[in-house]
Amino acid sequence: MIFLRRQLPLVITFVTGVLFAAQYYVPHPRSELMLTEVTKWLQIIGGFALVLGVTSLFHIHAVKIRRKEPGWGYSLVLYAGIFGTIAVGFSYNFAAGQWVNGKESINGIMTAFGWIYLNMMVPLQGSMFAILAFFIASAAYRSFRARSREAALLLIAAVIVMMGRVPLGEMLLPVSGDVTQWILNVLNAAVRRAILIGISLGAIALSLKIIFGIERAYLGGGKE
Amino acid sequence: MPNTLRDLATMNFAERMLHIDRRIIFLVIGVCTLLPLLYPVGLAIRVSSEVRGVHDYIESLPEGSVFLLSMDYDPASKPELYPQAVALLRHAFRKNLRVIGMTLWLPGTGLAEQVMTQVAREMGKVSGKDYVFLGWSPGSGSLIINMGQDLYKAFPTDYYNQPTRELAVLKGI
User: Fold this and answer.
1) Residue A205 main-chain phi, psi, to 5 deg
2) What is the pLDDT of residues B37-87, one digit of tens each?
3) Do B18 and A145 make contact, defined as CB atoms within 8 angstroms?
């Protein structure tokens, strides 16, 4: 059993890791075909992640309802929402003469699933985001204090960018638009690139550790 | 937060401003958002070099060129990205480009389909002939690689279950 649980996954990881790292440098049609095939597997695995996520969500909220934890009523609402939407998503649309199959509209006719999406999900998500704007503005108002030189610099940059992003700001301070673009395209982009390079180097290091079997956390910590 | 009126009295103006009641901040933001919505000010919007660059690039494309637009927004980011999608689609349709619409963001599929059909109808374009909406498929990065290798394998059918190989708009791609 230890071969199946430990050695085989390590061998598969090593072989595929080396193979696909090399694949990038081989522009042969067979190499391209292999990549296409494997990316299809990735897409399928990506689909499974959705199932895994929904199952996990169901489990967490089932436990909440069973234990009658505070706010368990919301978990019931979640169950009703998910099952109701799934049922509607798989229903039959008589006007279009077709199964809905998770489509918001069929031949220009809005389905019940589309109605739920446009009249419930869209306004709810929009409202959530709109509420967030109030909290962010309030938090920003309190946190933007020039306690040090660096904080003052950040505050000035933030004010310029805020002014440069809205027509009113540009009208009051015409130069703010150009300065904003410069801050975003030069300073911001440079820092973002530096962070991205750092993340990529970290990802390469982690990938090498996984390929060579140094990092084995993905194997899980079960009994051998 | 100041506890008493005496605390408030000992603060200078800047400190008082920083300790302002959160509800007042909410009220100010609410008023600042509502007023321009109810009474549009009509301020001029400056065209940035990035926007001009995108516009000029689309303008330089010859008629019948392929124009792929992935509309990756959901209801939360709709206010800032929906107008851009409308502008880009109108421009592409006006230039008689072959428009391919898709989304990599699952919760935005309905919105992407809605904007695509709405603008296409407005410009008198026909699905399958002038444009196609491919919908959503899982994978993001791997989906893009798959599309680069073989579009018809990545999306065997469009959003409306029409086989992509048979669509006139995708001919030669």
Assistant:
1) -60, -45
2) 899 888 888 888 889 999 999 999 999 999 999 999 988 888 889 999 999
3) yes
Q: Tens of pLDDT along B130-168?
A: 999 999 887 778 788 888 888 998 899 999 889 999 999
Q: Rounded to whole angstroms, how far apart are CA atoms A44 and A25?
A: 25
Tell the residue number behind the tokens 């090498």, with chain if given.
A208
CB contacts < 8 A (A, B): 99
CA–CA distance from B65 to each of A51, B85, B116, B169, B172 (Å)? 39, 18, 18, 10, 11
In this structure, are residues A180 and A163 in contact, taking their beta carbons and an 8 Å threshold?
yes
> CB-CB: which of B25, B29, B138 is closest to A47?
B138
Mutate to test the interface with A, among B142, B159, B160 (most CBs of A within 10 A): B142
- Helices A29-66 and A72-89: crossing angle, nearest 10°? 130
A151-to-A25, B13, B45 alpha-carbon distances in Å:
46, 20, 31
> B150: which chain A residues are within 8 Å (Cβ-Cβ)?
36
DSSP, res A223: -
CA distance B133 to B117: 9
Question: What's the token pair of residue A16?
Answer: 């595929």
Torsion, Cα of B86, B88, B93, B95 (10° steps): 150
Q: Is B140 left (phi over 0), alpha (psi -120 to 50) or beta?
A: left
- Asked if B159's CB is within 8 angstroms of A40's CB, the reply is no
Question: Which of A31, A36, A183 is the best residue to mutate to test the B interface, defined by the most B CB atoms within 10 Å of its own CB?
Answer: A36
Element (H, E) at A92: strand A92-93
